[in-house]
């Protein structure tokens, strides 16, 4: 977690004097300790002979400890040892180095130490460069001040908004409280408080006028507001009300809150509840309802089947219908209708069956093919079966029939879906389902010697149903881990139990990326991970440390064999 470093340099920047940390021991100590503890700085080492610090720094920078030691404060771009800065720090020359000022973290740092934020290009030895760094710090401080001010303004705006909301809420409660005080002899009391709560929820006293309960001045203001609203056509903005009533905006808002006839619209306009306006609205609504009823009646009349020929000529009218294909006359059987692929029109067989002709369903007769799409007098006419409705609702095609194969319901569902598809009233969900409805006879039955025989019957493909044997993962072959956690993974088999174990290793945030082609780096890596000891263990292949030590072989490029 980053730790904020205390900086007090603004006053010093004005005249380019010594930075405060060089003159204030307490401030310097606070800034230095913060740099030591901060995860992204890690200033050190406190003891210059602490080799563990340099090993840690080398891992962070992906280099060797010897190279890391060369990157210290003495050659950092922010390390200031200019003549003017040396005057700010008496006794800066020391036995093992010298003190300078760090413009990054604002404390006196030692030339032999370093930190994670080290930057090449130093040190600062010229007074002019030193002053430029001080000017940069001034700009960053001004930027921080601006951000702080903006943040404060936002906080103040939120507080003001919250206060205004509370005040508005309190104003809304005023009307209910005033009414309660005049209605109940005892105030405060449990009964009066309960009534106030109900009033605020809009359950009681909603249409109650406050005549006699408000002052004469308030009543006159209500009249003035009402007059302005009527003159403006029933609604007006706050500016118009202030101008027309010559009252303050605050008084007008209070009056609106306490008067039932005055309502604030969502867009900010104030509206007067006028009974005459409500009456006009009711009339408009009634007119719309009558218009909608006429349209529905006209549509219903149009959808009805035309029986005019039958009513006029009786049976002759029945036979005057076109009927099915060829010379057959009369009505048509809606259960036999199919859509012609060439013309797109619906064609049906005649309702009257020929001698010896058998059909899958008993004829459902209508005067014309177009009439087959209208609702008849029967309760189930034109309705899909429950089974097909369930398929449509769940988004499942009939190729995945919910009924048991071979049952009557199983074949009936296919027949119904095929008939509706050919009529254009059912849409297949897949190419396979479409092929079944167009090119198969699944669902169709024939009667042979009094027994109904399906023309096609579904058969299970045993080869498809055979479960594939689960393959074992590759054993002893490290790969990158695609899941969360570590960076690499490898599967190994336990020789005792025979079980397969998954081992993950390497930090996902850049771990195991050592400079494997560098001899010094390899030696340091092997020493830190005790690779020589891990390679001798009998169960070494079952440990993450073993695979970490040979990561150079599995993931490195042109790296020589072992390095332990």
User: What's the shape?
Assistant: flat
The chain-level structural class is alpha+beta
Number of helices: 22
Measured as a percent range, the helix fraction is 40-55%
- CA(first)-CA(last) distance: 37 Å
Number-wise, the strands total 15
Give the biggest sheet.
4 strands, antiparallel
Question: Would you write up a description of this structure?
Answer:
By secondary structure, the protein is an alpha+beta fold. The protein has helices spanning 10-15, 20-23, 25-37, 51-61, 65-70, 83-88, 127-183, 190-200, 216-231, 238-245, 249-258, 275-303, 308-313, 315-319, 386-394, 408-422, 431-439, 462-465, 519-528, 531-534, 544-549, 551-555; strands at residues 79-80, 93-94, 97-102, 107-110, 235-236, 262-264, 270-272, 332-339, 346-350, 365-366, 445-448, 451-454, 479-480, 488-493, 500-505. Among the domains are: 10-125, no CATH class; 209-272, Winged helix-like DNA-binding domain superfamily/Winged helix DNA-binding domain (Arc Repressor Mutant, subunit A, Orthogonal Bundle); 312-373, no CATH class; 386-460, no CATH class; 479-555, no CATH class. The chain has 22 helices and 15 strands. Strands 1, 2, 3 and 4 form a four-stranded antiparallel beta sheet that branches. Strands 5-7-6 form a three-stranded antiparallel beta sheet. A three-stranded antiparallel beta sheet has the order 9-8-10, with no helix packed on it. α7 (127-183) packs across α8 and α9 (216-231) crosses α10. The longest helix has 57 residues, at 127-183. The protein is flat. The two termini are 37 Å apart.
């Amino acid at each position: 977690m980053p730790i904020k470093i205390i900086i007090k340099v603004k006053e010093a920047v004005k005249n380019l004097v010594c930075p405060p940390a060089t003159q204030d021991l307490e401030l310097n100590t606070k800034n230095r300790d913060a740099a030591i503890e901060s995860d992204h700085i890690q200033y050190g080492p406190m003891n210059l002979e602490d080799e563990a610090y340099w090993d840690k720094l080398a891992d962070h920078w992906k280099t060797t400890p010897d190279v890391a030691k060369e990157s210290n404060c003495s050659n950092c771009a922010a390390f200031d040892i200019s003549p003017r800065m040396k005057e700010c720090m008496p006794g800066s020359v020391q036995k093992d180095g010298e003190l300078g000022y760090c413009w990054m973290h604002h404390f006196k740092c030692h030339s032999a130490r370093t930190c994670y934020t080290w930057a090449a290009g130093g040190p600062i030895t010229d007074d002019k460069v030193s002053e430029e760094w001080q000017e940069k710090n001034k700009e960053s401080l001004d930027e921080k001040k601006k951000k702080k001010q903006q943040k404060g303004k936002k906080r103040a705006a939120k507080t003001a908004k919250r206060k205004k909301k509370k005040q508005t809420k309190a104003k809304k409660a005023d009307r209910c409280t005033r009414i309660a005080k005049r209605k109940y002899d005892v105030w405060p009391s449990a009964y009066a408080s309960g009534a106030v709560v109900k009033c605020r929820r809009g359950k009681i006293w909603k249409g109650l006028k406050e005549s006699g309960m408000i002052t004469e001045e308030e009543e006159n203001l209500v009249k003035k507001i009402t007059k302005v609203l009527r003159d403006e056509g029933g609604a007006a903005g706050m500016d118009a009300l202030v101008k027309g009533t010559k009252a303050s905006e605050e008084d007008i808002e209070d009056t609106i809150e306490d008067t039932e006839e005055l309502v604030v619209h969502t867009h900010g306009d104030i509206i007067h509840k006028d009974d005459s306006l409500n009456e006009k609205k009711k009339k408009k609504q009634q007119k719309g309802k009558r218009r909608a009823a006429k349209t529905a009646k006209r549509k219903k009349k149009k959808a009805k089947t035309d029986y005019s020929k039958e009513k006029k000529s009786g049976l002759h009218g029945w036979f005057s219908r076109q009927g099915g294909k060829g010379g057959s006359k009369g009505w048509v059987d809606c259960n036999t209708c199919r859509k012609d692929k060439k013309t797109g029109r619906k064609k049906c067989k005649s309702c009257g069956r020929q001698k010896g002709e058998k059909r899958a369903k008993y004829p459902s007769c209508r005067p014309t093919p177009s009439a087959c799409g209208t609702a008849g007098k029967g309760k189930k006419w034109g309705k899909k079966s429950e089974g097909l409705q369930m398929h449509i609702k769940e988004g499942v095609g009939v190729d995945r029939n919910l009924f048991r194969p071979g049952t009557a319901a199983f074949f009936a569902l296919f027949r119904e879906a095929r008939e509706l598809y050919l009529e254009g009233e059912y849409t297949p969900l897949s190419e396979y389902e479409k092929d079944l409805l167009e090119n198969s006879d699944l669902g169709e039955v024939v009667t042979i010697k009094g027994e109904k025989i399906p023309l096609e019957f579904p058969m299970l493909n045993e080869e498809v149903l055979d479960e594939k044997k689960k393959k074992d993962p590759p054993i002893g072959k490290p790969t990158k881990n695609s899941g969360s956690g570590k960076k690499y993974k490898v599967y190994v088999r336990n020789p005792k139990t025979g079980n397969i174990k998954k081992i993950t290793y390497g930090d996902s945030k850049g771990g195991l990326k050592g400079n494997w082609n560098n001899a010094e780096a390899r030696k340091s890596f092997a020493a830190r991970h005790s690779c020589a000891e891990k390679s001798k263990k009998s169960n070494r292949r079952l440990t993450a440390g073993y695979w970490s030590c040979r990561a150079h072989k599995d993931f490195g490029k042109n790296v020589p064999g072992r390095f332990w």
